[in-house]
C-alpha cells in the first residue's frame, strides 16, 4: 500500500525505534519528521492544503486538529481501501474520527517497543477490561493490548467488555483462577465500575495499566482517587497510559507522575487561542509529533490540555475546559447509563 | 403593575458605568446600552396587565450577558419576585441588575444555587440543551426552555451590518448570525473587510480555550475544503455545505456560497428545528416557510425589540399564568 518512498520512510522510523530503545545513537527526529511531512503533503490533500510556508524545523509542521479526522479523510490512504482502520469512540453529539493506515506494522512495532522499554517484562496472563478486538477490530486500544502478547511469554488474553458492558462474573472467575501475577489492562471507567461491585483479587505483584479520561458524564471521581483506591483494594502495581486513536504511539507513566513519551513522539503545548507553541512548563493545548503516524498526519493537535516539561514528559490536565468528553472510557460509560 | 419602578430601574442602570465582563469595554458598552434602549418607555408601557406569577427564576447563560434584562423588566413590572440563577464561575452583569433593583425597591435577587428552581412558579432557562436536561427534573412550576438555537444571515450588500451582528456579544448567543450565506462571489473578501473594521470599532473580548481551539480547527477545515480569511480577533470560514455545522464561535463566521437566496433557504431548512432568526437584505418572504422567530434586516439580529416572538413563543404573554 505504501509506495517506495513510504516504504523507505517506514524503514527509517523502524530503524530509529530499534536504536532508540536499545540505547544506540539514532537519526534525529526533527529532519525525519519533516521528510514524513513532505511525503504526506505530496500524497494527502489535507496536508497539502495546510501547508503554511516553509518548514524549517519540526515545530513548523502544521498540527492537524483531531476534529479533521472526523470530517475529512486525513492521510495518504483512502479509508475504503485501508487495511487498518481505527475509529474514535466518539461523543454523544459527534461522529467518529477515523485513523486509516496502510499497515499496522509501525503501530504494533513502536507500541511494543516502548511498552517493553518502559514496563519491562510483562506477565504471561493478560486480563483486559476492554472489548475483544476480534469483535471490535477498529478499537485501537484493544489492538494495542492484543499486540502485547508478542512481548511476553506464552499465555492468554481474555476480554471482559461486551457491547460496552463489563462482564463482571467472567472477569472475576478469570482473575480468581490465576496463580501467577497477571497484566490487567483497563480504562479508567471500566476499572471504576469493577470496583463498584464484587471484584476478585489479582495475584500479588500483578501489573495494572489504566488509561483514558475518567471525568466523564457519570462518575466524577478524581482520577488520582481512583488509582489510589484501586491500588489499595487490588494490591496491583499501577501504571498509566495516555494515547488516542489519532496517534500511533503511546506515553506511559506512574500514578501522580508525568507521562513519558517515546523518543519518536514529541509533545508541545500551544496557546489554544492563537495556536502559537508555548515554552515548556506552561499549560496549553497539547500537540504531538508522532513519527509512526506515517500514513496519516505526522503532527496532530488534540483537545487535551497539559504541561510539556523541559525533559519532554507530559502532565495531562484533561480536556480543554468545555470540550466534550471523549475516549474509550465513554464507550462503557454510555452502556452504564443505559442500564 | 410596577412599570414606573422598572423605568427607574432602567434609568439607574443607564446611569451606571458599563459593568466589566468577558467582553471588551467597547463591545460591552454596545450591547449594554442596546439592551437598555430596548426597554423604552413605549415598550414598557405596552406590557399587558393581568394575573402574574408570584415567583420566577431565570436560569442565565454565560454567553449573552444582557439576556435577563428584558425578562426581569417584564416580570418585575407585573410584580413577580424574580431570582436570577447565575453560573457560579460567571455571574455576569447580575450584580448591577440586582443592586439597581434594590435601589428602586424591586424584588430581584441572584444566586448560584441550582435548587432555587424547585419551588418557583415560573422558571425560564437559557443555555445549552445540557442545561435544560439538568434543570428540567428539578422544576415543579411552569417551565420555559430557551435551549440551543442559531440564526443565519443572507447578505449581498450590507456586509458591515452583518459583521456588527456577528460582533455583538462577540458572536455568542442564539441571535448571532452563525452562518452567512451569499450569492456574491466575493463574499469572503467583503465579510473579511467588514469583520476587520468591526474589530476596530468593538474589539473582541475574552475567548475561552475551547472556543479558540474550535475556531482554529474550523479554520483548518475551511483551508482544506474552502477558504479561510482571518485577522486579529476575527475569522471567516468559507465551507462547502456538507461541512456546515451551525456552531456559534466568537467573531467567527461560517460562510456558505449559494447561487441565489432560495438555495440559501433550502440549505437552512434542514436545520429548521434549531433556527432562531434570519436576517436578509434580499427577499424576507422567501424565509417565512421556515417559520423563524424573526426575519429582520442585517444589523437588527442582535437588537431585538421587547415585544416579539422568541423561539416561536410570544414570550411576554408566556410570562403570565
What does this structure look like?
The complex is a heterodimer of chains A (339) and B (321). With 339 residues, chain A is of the alpha/beta class. In chain A, 32% of the residues lie in helices and 22% in strands. Chain A has 2 domains: 4-81 and 265-319, no CATH class; 107-257 and 326-338, Rossmann fold, CATH 3.40.50. In chain A, the strands form 3 sheets. Chain A has a 7-stranded mixed β-sheet with strand order 6-5-4-7-8-9-10, sandwiched between helices. In chain A, helix 8 (188-196) links the parallel strand 7 and strand 8 (207-211). Chain A is globular, with a radius of gyration of 19 Å. The termini of chain A are far apart. Mean pLDDT of chain A is 90; it is low at 215-220 and 326-339. By secondary structure, chain B is α/β, with parallel strands linked by helices. Chain B folds into 2 domains: 3-148, Aldehyde Dehydrogenase, Chain A, domain 1 (3-Layer(aba) Sandwich); 150-296, 3-Layer(aba) Sandwich (Aldehyde Dehydrogenase, Chain A, domain 2). Chain B has helices at 3-15, 25-37, 41-45, 67-77, 94-104, 129-135, 159-167, 187-201, 209-225, 261-269, 315-318; strands spanning 55-59, 81-85, 108-111, 122-126, 142-146, 150-154, 177-182, 227-231, 234-238, 252-257, 275-280, 294-296, 309-310, 313-314. The chains are: A alpha/beta (339), B alpha/beta (321). The A-B interface holds A 45-46, 49-50, 62, 64-65, 67-68, 71-72, 271-275, 285, 301, 303, 305, 320-323 and B 207-214, 216-218, 220-221, 223-225, 243.
Amino acid at each position: 500500500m505504501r509506495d517506495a518512498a513510504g516504504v523507505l520512510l517506514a524503514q527509517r522510523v523502524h530503524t530509529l525505534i530499534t536504536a532508540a530503545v536499545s540505547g544506540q545513537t539514532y537519526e534525529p527526529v526533527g529532519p525525519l519528521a519533516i521528510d514524513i511531512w513532505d511525503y504526506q503533503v505530496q500524497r494527502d490533500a489535507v496536508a497539502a492544503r495546510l501547508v503554511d510556508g516553509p518548514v524549517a524545523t519540526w515545530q513548523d509542521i502544521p498540527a492537524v486538529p483531531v476534529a479533521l479526522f472526523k470530517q475529512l479523510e486525513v492521510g495518504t490512504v483512502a479509508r475504503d481501501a485501508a487495511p487498518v482502520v481505527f475509529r474514535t469512540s466518539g461523543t454523544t453529539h459527534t461522529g467518529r474520527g477515523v485513523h486509516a493506515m496502510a499497515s499496522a506494522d509501525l503501530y504494533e512495532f513502536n507500541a511494543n517497543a516502548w511498552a517493553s522499554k518502559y514496563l519491562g517484562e510483562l506477565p504471561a496472563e493478560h486480563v483486559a477490561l476492554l472489548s475483544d478486538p476480534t469483535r471490535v477490530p477498529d478499537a485501537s486500544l484493544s489492538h494495542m493490548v492484543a499486540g502485547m502478547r508478542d512481548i511476553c511469554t506464552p499465555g492468554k488474553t481474555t476480554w471482559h467488555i461486551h457491547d460496552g458492558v463489563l462482564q463482571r462474573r467472567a472477569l472475576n472467575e478469570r482473575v480468581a483462577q490465576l496463580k501467577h501475577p497477571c497484566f490487567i489492562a483497563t480504562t479508567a471507567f471500566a476499572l471504576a465500575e469493577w470496583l463498584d461491585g464484587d471484584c476478585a483479587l489479582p495475584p500479588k505483584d500483578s501489573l495494572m495499566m489504566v488509561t483514558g479520561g475518567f471525568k466523564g458524564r457519570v462518575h466524577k471521581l478524581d482520577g488520582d482517587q481512583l488509582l489510589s483506591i484501586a491500588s489499595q483494594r487490588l494490591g496491583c502495581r499501577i501504571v498509566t497510559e495516555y494515547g488516542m486513536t489519532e496517534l500511533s504511539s503511546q506515553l506511559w507513566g506512574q500514578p501522580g507522575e508525568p507521562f513519558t513519551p517515546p523518543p519518536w513522539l514529541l509533545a508541545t503545548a500551544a496557546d489554544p487561542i492563537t495556536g502559537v507553541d508555548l515554552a515548556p512548563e506552561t499549560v496549553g493545548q497539547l500537540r504531538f509529533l508522532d513519527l509512526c503516524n506515517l500514513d496519516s498526519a505526522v503532527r496532530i493537535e488534540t483537545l487535551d490540555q497539559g504541561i510539556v516539561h523541559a525533559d519532554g514528559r507530559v502532565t495531562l490536565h484533561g480536556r480543554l475546559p468545555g470540550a466534550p468528553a471523549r475516549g474509550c472510557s465513554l464507550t462503557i460509560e454510555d452502556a452504564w447509563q443505559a442500564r | 403593575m410596577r412599570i414606573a419602578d422598572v423605568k427607574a430601574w432602567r434609568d439607574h442602570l443607564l446611569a451606571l458605568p458599563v459593568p466589566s465582563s468577558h467582553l471588551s469595554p467597547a463591545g460591552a458598552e454596545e450591547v449594554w446600552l442596546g439592551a437598555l434602549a430596548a426597554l423604552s418607555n413605549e415598550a414598557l408601557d405596552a406590557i399587558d396587565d393581568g394575573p402574574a406569577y408570584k415567583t420566577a427564576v431565570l436560569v442565565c447563560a454565560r454567553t449573552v450577558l444582557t439576556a435577563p434584562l428584558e425578562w426581569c423588566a417584564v416580570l418585575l413590572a407585573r410584580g413577580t419576585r424574580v431570582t436570577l440563577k447565575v453560573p457560579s464561575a460567571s455571574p455576569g452583569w447580575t450584580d448591577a441588575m440586582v443592586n439597581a433593583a434594590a435601589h428602586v425597591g424591586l424584588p430581584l435577587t441572584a444566586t448560584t444555587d441550582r435548587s432555587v428552581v424547585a419551588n418557583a412558579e415560573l422558571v425560564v432557562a437559557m443555555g445549552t440543551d445540557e442545561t435544560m436536561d439538568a434543570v428540567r427534573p428539578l422544576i415543579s412550576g411552569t417551565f420555559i426552555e430557551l435551549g440551543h438555537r442559531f440564526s443565519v444571515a443572507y447578505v449581498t450588500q450590507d456586509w458591515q451590518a452583518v459583521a456588527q451582528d456577528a460582533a455583538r456579544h462577540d458572536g455568542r448567543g442564539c441571535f448571532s448570525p452563525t452562518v452567512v450565506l451569499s450569492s456574491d462571489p466575493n463574499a469572503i473578501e467583503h465579510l473579511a473587510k467588514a469583520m476587520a473594521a468591526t474589530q476596530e470599532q468593538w474589539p473582541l473580548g475574552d475567548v475561552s480555550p475551547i472556543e479558540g481551539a474550535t475556531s482554529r480547527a474550523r479554520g483548518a477545515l475551511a483551508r482544506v475544503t474552502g477558504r479561510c480569511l482571518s485577522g486579529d480577533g476575527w475569522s471567516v470560514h468559507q465551507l462547502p455545505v456538507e461541512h456546515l455545522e451551525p456552531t456559534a464561535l466568537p467573531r467567527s463566521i461560517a460562510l456558505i456560497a449559494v447561487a441565489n437566496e432560495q438555495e440559501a433557504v433550502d440549505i437552512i431548512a434542514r436545520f429548521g428545528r434549531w433556527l432562531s432568526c434570519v436576517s436578509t437584505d434580499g427577499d424576507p418572504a422567501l424565509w417565512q416557510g421556515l417559520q423563524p422567530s424573526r426575519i429582520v434586516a442585517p444589523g437588527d439580529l442582535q437588537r431585538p425589540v421587547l415585544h416579539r416572538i422568541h423561539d416561536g413563543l410570544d414570550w411576554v404573554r408566556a410570562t403570565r399564568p
